[in-house]
From TrEMBL:
GO BP term (any one): poly(A)+ mRNA export from nucleus
Spans annotated as Disordered: 94-154, 372-406
The gene coding this protein: GLE1
Protein name: mRNA export factor GLE1
A single Gene Ontology CC term: nuclear pore cytoplasmic filaments
Species the sequence originates in: Panthera pardus
Superkingdom: Eukaryota
């Protein structure tokens, strides 16, 4: 529109003028502010919301005069104001909000009224759209303060005011629109930046996760590679180790085999040397024994026609030769085969000497007996010729072991005792014949049964000890059940004598043999062991009498002094066989040493002395002991009625009285003490007479024991005797 263009040109020109550059306050007239005066600088309301500052007093007075004149004129609207109301405001109302439209309508209606014009809303400078909100707030405040009706301005002021308001409105709308667009643009940018940042963050996280995965994968590959390398290295080391270990094992095995070979050779050499040494000891013992027999032939020197001194001298030389060989081997180690051969030749020469001497003695005795018979016949003939016949019995003198005449004692055992001895040996022989088929069987099953039965019979006896009475009862029950035909556990298997018809005989024989063997070995080494073994044997004897007979048979065979019985030397009997009948162990023509022989005899006599005084505590008390103290009294009486044997009789008497003396004292009392006095007064001198100086140990031990008992008038309880507290354990 042309008028609108002129309006904007006018405003632009006004802005470029000096007045437009003044600080203008558009409400100066409404507020009634007129400042300044003549001669001083004045101020008018500025066109842009401020006060106009006048540069000179004249200009101030002129402006003040014009303004005052204009204010005193009659208010009226110009034609331009009506044009603005008709043409400009309607177009503006289309772009304004409802509130501003209402305000414009009110302004228009007010313009049409000549009386008053309401205060226009506060406008925001066109050149400052950003601060529109702040200007609106201040303008609303001022509008509220000046809402009362005011006088209409002049047409020029209204025109200017309308232009200004239109300009402000346009610029405010433009500013708002620009601000809205700018805000939307910023929001879009913010959203875009936010989305872009979110996407970048996602990509960053993805790249970071991918990097971590790659690093983890690389690390795992490195670890797997190193692990494979380590495993390969380890396998290589293992292979090398196995190879070296194999080589080392081969070397060790070779060294061990070499060592074992050397040890075996050394062991064989030592065994051979020990066998030779034992053989030499046996040869020496036999040589000494034969030399003693040579010395014993001194009693026949009156009837012999040979020189006994030369024979004894040669015997002593042979003894010295054997002793020298043994002494040399003791210093140098083991004897050689040559040493053994020399000793055997010396023994053979000693045997030849003794044999020739015995033959000479036999011939001399026969000649003397023949001469005595001839002399007796001659005397009888002379008596018959001289007068009545006088009959006199002249008994033959009894010769003892030492060649002295026996006046009171005997050498042979009583006939009743010998019959009893032979009966027991017959029982043992019959028992052996009864299970001979089982012993000689070649069947593997029969051999297995025999082995199981032997273990079941002998192992429990080996387990007998003084640990506890309950343990002893378990062993007794196991043996009793085995003999009764009940199955027992042995070696993890069930064993019974019913497995074989000859099983019971075999078990009884082996059981009796084991009891005696325990006395020979265990009791000989540990005297206290006699009592637990004896009480079990006594209990089994009471329930199974045949076992007791077999125990006595084995005991008499191994220790004939338990009968008591001194086996005689028979003509034609070999020396080794005779030594076996005396109880000596002979192996490979070698007789055991005297100390070992006495030790074994002592163990068996102690076992026998314990058996005759003990009974099984859990058995019936109504029955008598199957082999009680009366047999001990018989044994003691019979051995005192026999000639003593050097070193043997004293040892056996001491062992028997130490174990059984207390029980015999309680049983026989005064009679027992009489027998002890008899031993001291009559039997000690006989033992001492036949005992050499080197064998006085056993005699002195027996003498001191009996003297102490007589002094105390009591035989002490033997060590290891089973008391009542033992059976409660």
């Amino acid at each position: 529109m042309p008028s609108e263009g002129r309006c904007w040109e006018t405003l632009q020109a006004l802005r470029s003028s000096d007045k437009g550059r003044l600080c203008y306050h558009r409400d100066w007239l409404l507020r009634g502010e007129v400042r300044g005066g003549p001669g001083v600088g004045g101020a008018l309301p500025a066109a842009r919301g401020g006060t106009l500052l006048f540069p000179s007093p004249w200009l101030g007075r002129r402006c003040e005069h014009d303004v005052l004149e204009e204010c005193r004129s009659v208010p009226k609207l110009s034609s331009y104001s009506g044009w603005v109301v008709d043409h400009v405001l309607p177009h503006m109302q289309e772009n304004q909000p409802s509130s501003e439209t209402s305000e414009s309508s009110r302004s228009t209606s007010d313009l049409e009224q000549p009386s008053c014009v309401p205060k226009s809303p506060v406008r925001t400078p066109a050149f400052s759209p950003v601060s529109s909100a702040t200007a609106d707030g201040a303008e609303d405040k001022r509008e509220s303060q000046h809402a009362e009706p005011m006088a209409l301005q002049s047409s020029r002021g209204i025109k200017v005011e309308g232009c200004i308001r239109m300009y402000e409105l346009v610029h405010r709308m433009r500013g708002r629109e620009g601000l809205r667009q700018w805000q939307e643009e910023q929001e879009r940018k913010v959203r875009a930046l936010s989305e872009m940042a979110s996407e970048q963050l996602k990509r960053f996280d993805e790249r970071k996760e991918l990097k971590h995965h790659k690093e983890f994968q690389d690390l795992r590959e490195v670890m797997e590679k190193s692990s494979r390398e380590a495993l390969g290295h380890q396998e290589k080391l293992k292979a090398e180790h196995r190879h070296r270990a194999k080589i080392l094992n081969l070397k060790l095995r070779e060294a061990e085999q070499q060592r074992l070979k050397q040890v075996e050779q050394e062991r064989l050499r030592k065994e051979e040397g020990q066998v030779r040494l034992r053989g030499l000891y046996g040869l020496q013992e036999e040589v000494l024994h034969l030399n003693q027999q040579l010395d014993a032939s001194e009693q026949h020197k009156d009837v012999l026609k040979v020189d006994l001194s030369a024979i004894r001298t040669r015997g002593n030389q042979l003894c010295g030769l054997v002793s020298g060989i043994i002494r040399a081997t003791s210093e140098n180690g083991f004897p050689t085969a040559e040493d053994q051969a020399v000793a055997e030749r010396a023994l053979q020469e000693m045997r030849d000497l003794l044999t020739s001497l015995q033959q000479e003695i036999a011939r001399a005795c026969e000649d003397k007996r023949r001469q005595d018979l001839e002399a007796q016949v001659k005397r009888q003939d002379s008596h018959m010729q001289q007068g009545p016949e006088v009959h006199r019995e002249t008994p033959a003198p009894s010769q003892g072991p030492g060649g002295k005449q026996n006046e009171d004692l005997q050498v042979k055992v009583q006939d009743s005792t010998m019959r009893w001895y032979h009966q027991l040996q017959d029982v043992s022989s019959q028992c052996v014949l009864a299970f001979e088929e089982l012993t000689n069987s070649k069947d593997s099953q029969a051999k297995k049964v025999k082995m199981d039965l032997q273990k079941a019979a002998t192992i429990p006896v080996s387990q007998i000890s003084t640990i506890a009475g309950s343990k002893l009862k378990e062993i007794f029950d196991k043996i009793h059940n085995l003999l009764s035909g009940k199955p027992v556990q042995s070696g993890g298997r069930s064993v019974s004598v019913t497995l074989n018809p000859q099983g019971l005989d075999f078990v009884q024989y082996k059981l009796a043999e084991k009891f005696v063997k325990q006395g020979e070995e265990e009791v000989a080494s540990h005297h206290e062991a006699a009592f637990p073994i004896a009480v079990v044997a006594s209990g089994i004897w009471e329930l199974h009498p045949r076992v007791g007979d077999l125990i006595l048979a084995h005991l008499h065979r191994k220790c004939p002094y338990s009968v008591p019985f001194y086996p005689p030397f028979k003509e034609g009997m070999a020396l080794e066989d005779y030594q076996r009948t005396l109880g000596y162990q002979v192996k490979d023509s070698k007789v055991e040493q005297q100390d070992n022989f006495l030790k074994r005899m002592s163990g068996m006599i102690r076992l026998y002395a314990a058996i005759i005084q003990l009974r099984w505590p859990y058995g019936g008390r109504q029955q008598i002991h199957p082999h009680g103290l009366n047999h001990g009294w018989r044994w003691l009486a019979q051995i005192l009625n026999m000639e003593p044997l050097s070193d043997v009789t004293a040892t056996l008497l001491f062992d028997f009285l130490e174990v059984c003396g207390n029980a015999l004292m309680k049983q026989y009392q005064v009679q027992f003490w009489k027998m002890i006095l008899l031993i001291k007064e009559d039997y000690f001198p006989r033992i001492e007479a036949i005992t050499s100086s080197g064998q006085m140990g056993s005699f002195i031990r027996l003498k001191q024991f009996l003297e102490k008992c007589l002094q105390r008038k009591e035989i002490p309880v033997p060590k290891g005797f089973l008391t009542s507290s033992f059976w409660r354990s």
